[in-house]
Design goal:
Layout (H helix, E strand, L loop, with lengths): L1 E4 L4 H8 L6 E5 L11 E5 L5 H7 L5 E4 L10 H20 L4 E5 L11 H14 L4 E7 L2 E2 L4 H11 L4 E4 L5 E2 L2 E2 H13 L6 E5 L5 E2 H11 L6 E4 L1 H14 L7 H5 L10 H7 L6 H5 L2
Parallel strand pairs: 1-2, 1-4, 2-3, 4-5, 5-6, 6-11, 7-10, 8-13
Antiparallel strand pairs: 9-12
């Protein structure tokens, strides 16, 4: 049996659709009618509760851990869920003799500048690595696809301005990944013995500039606005003020500071071990 956290999230919903022949136990905090399928056993609980985590993992053979706090007004939430929650699951795996764990982290954990989300994911990775379990860590970049929050937020942001604000010259590279490719990497990790004890960057097929990203999104959603490039120092000042206002401020300081991060990720190891062959952003955007 597969134990799955984060089943009601964007990646979780898409993963469940590909696990139709498997028995899945899903940890949920509240009832969700979308989990009313024959192969799914919903379990009410919370990963921040040790007893809840232990009960959830009884009878499981493998844990796929997706649950995470991405945005919160309280920075403690990142650590209580992403760090302590992961620790509770690792301890529960040991108690219930669940030897295999697929942990979906984030490329945010690899940046030179770590915000609370990235830092909490980095700490959680270290917990998994030191666990003694047969682990695989996957680090997706910006995940997009049909009904994705990331794309909705992007389009909403563009719609809220008379122009499209771009941080700096917009020539820095990003590499969004389609949700189907993330799901494919998770499924391959379950079967791949080569992936045990390793961490993989899960990215799109190739990098694009942020200008190209905005142009493709604008074309897809029939948005006709001019791009206005805003100096990085001004963006940094605005984002610093925004960080005080809360996590939902559209310009994040971590984004501005991470533009010069040296490590952008690579997928050669995932290609080799997971038979990972992602698609281009333009193709994925039009699916």
């Amino acid at each position: 049996m597969i134990a799955l956290t984060g089943a009601t999230g964007f990646i979780g919903k898409n993963l469940i659709n590909k696990l139709k022949g498997k028995k899945i136990k899903c940890l949920i905090r509240r009832y969700n009618e979308n989990l009313g399928k024959k192969n799914i056993i919903p379990v009410m609980g919370d990963i921040t509760n040790k007893t809840s985590a232990e009960m959830f993992l009884k009878g499981a053979k493998i844990l796929i851990h997706l649950a995470a706090v991405i945005d919160s007004n309280n920075r403690k939430d990142y650590y209580s869920v992403n760090v302590e929650g992961t620790k509770n699951l690792v301890d529960a795996c040991k108690k219930n003799k669940v030897k295999r764990i697929i942990f979906v982290s984030s490329m945010a954990s690899t940046k030179d500048y770590l915000d609370d989300y990235g830092r909490s994911k980095k700490i959680a990775e270290d917990i998994v690595k030191r666990s003694g379990l047969n682990y695989t860590i996957l680090r997706p970049s910006l995940v997009y696809g049909e009904n994705s929050n990331s794309m909705r937020k992007m389009v909403s942001l563009i719609d809220s301005f008379k122009f499209i604000p771009i941080v700096g010259n917009g020539e820095y590279k990003i590499n969004p990944v389609h949700v189907n490719d993330v799901v494919s990497a998770i499924l391959s990790s379950i079967e791949s013995k080569k992936s045990i004890g390793k961490a993989y960057d899960i990215l799109g097929k190739s990098e694009i500039t942020f200008n190209e990203f905005v142009d493709m999104v604008s074309a897809k959603y029939n948005i006709h606005k001019r791009k206005v490039h805003i100096p990085i120092q001004l963006c940094l000042a605005v984002s610093s003020i925004g960080s005080i206002l809360g996590p939902h401020f559209p310009l994040k300081k971590s984004f501005v500071l991470s533009l010069n991060s040296r490590y952008k990720g690579e997928i050669s190891q995932a290609r080799s071990d997971l038979n990972y062959h992602p698609i281009e952003f333009k193709e994925g955007l039009n699916r």
